């Protein structure tokens, strides 16, 4: 048997996480809990248990439960516009269609970190600062889409008589429709291409089509 004096000493020093690291950990755990339990079920006790700290320790990082939920929502908001911002290219109608195509794969990868928590928050029916943050984020996305449509009108690729807001809402409704289909388990709405066909037909009504005329000059219809 090895003598006490020759035994290797274990380093019992604990590595303490910084406040910022612990806050990120709490926020990430809260997002996961929102997806599983919804707003009402995401309690302080569950958040603390998920992170492995005492309830009291949680309040060293956030003043109250509402602040934790707001931080989680802000984290979700950083992801929420990714499907809109990824699309690029000079042709606006193609860019808008690309947004719709991107949403399907984006929503699948962000199902538990955005889609489910997002709709859980909406379904909570709580008139709090949380719902105000949700509304503000959606309005921001809406305004960005309107700007894209206005660009298309200036370049002549989108009909000048079309309501820019109608087109912007159409893109958001496309996204919400796919999200709800996933939540309901009706994935064939997406996997069989239904949602994309609907979006393409809709966008076709707003897109200016250039056709060659008999005199050799292109004409827009």
> Average pLDDT, to the nearest integer?
85
Number of structural domains: 2
- Quickly give the CATH architecture of the largest domain: Orthogonal Bundle
Low-confidence spans: none
* CATH class category of the largest domain: Mainly Alpha
Total strands: 2
Looking at this structure, what is the CATH superfamily of the largest domain?
Tetracycline Repressor, domain 2
What does this structure look like?
The chain folds into 2 domains: 19-76, Orthogonal Bundle (Arc Repressor Mutant, subunit A); 81-209, Tetracycline Repressor, domain 2 (Orthogonal Bundle). The protein is built from 11 helices and 2 strands; from the N terminus they run H-H-H-H-H-H-H-H-H-H-H-E-E. It has helices spanning 19-41, 44-51, 55-58, 65-80, 82-85, 92-109, 111-123, 129-155, 164-184, 188-191, 194-206; strands at 210-212, 218-220. Helix 1 (19-41) crosses helix 2 (44-51), helix 1 (19-41) crosses helix 4 and helix 6 (92-109) packs across helix 7 (111-123). The protein is elongated, with a radius of gyration of 24 Å. The mean pLDDT is 85.
Structure described in brief:
With 221 residues, the protein is an all-alpha fold. The chain folds into two domains: 19-76, Arc Repressor Mutant, subunit A (Orthogonal Bundle); 81-209, Tetracycline Repressor, domain 2 (Orthogonal Bundle), CATH 1.10.357. It has eleven helices and two strands; from the N terminus they run αααααααααααββ.
């Amino acid at each position: 048997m090895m003598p006490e004096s020759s035994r290797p000493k274990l380093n019992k020093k604990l590595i303490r996480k910084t406040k910022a690291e612990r806050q990120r950990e709490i926020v990430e755990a809260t997002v996961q809990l929102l997806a599983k339990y919804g707003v009402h079920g995401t309690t302080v006790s569950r958040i603390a248990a998920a992170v492995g700290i005492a309830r009291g320790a949680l309040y060293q990082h956030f003043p109250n439960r509402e602040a934790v939920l707001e931080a989680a929502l802000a984290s979700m908001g950083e992801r929420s516009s990714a499907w809109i911002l990824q699309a690029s290219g000079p042709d606006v109608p193609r860019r808008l269609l690309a947004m719709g195509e991107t949403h399907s794969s984006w929503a699948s990868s962000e199902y538990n970190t955005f889609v489910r928590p997002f709709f859980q928050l909406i379904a909570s029916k709580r008139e709090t600062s949380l719902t105000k943050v949700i509304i503000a984020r959606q309005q921001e996305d809406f305004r960005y889409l309107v700007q894209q449509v206005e660009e298309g009108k200036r370049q002549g690729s989108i009909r000048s008589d079309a309501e820019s807001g109608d087109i912007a809402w159409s893109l958001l409704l496309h996204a919400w429709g796919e999200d709800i289909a996933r939540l309901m388990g009706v994935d064939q709405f997406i996997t069989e291409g239904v949602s994309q066909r609907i979006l393409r037909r809709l966008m076709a009504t707003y897109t200016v089509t250039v056709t060659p005329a008999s005199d050799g000059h292109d004409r827009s219809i």
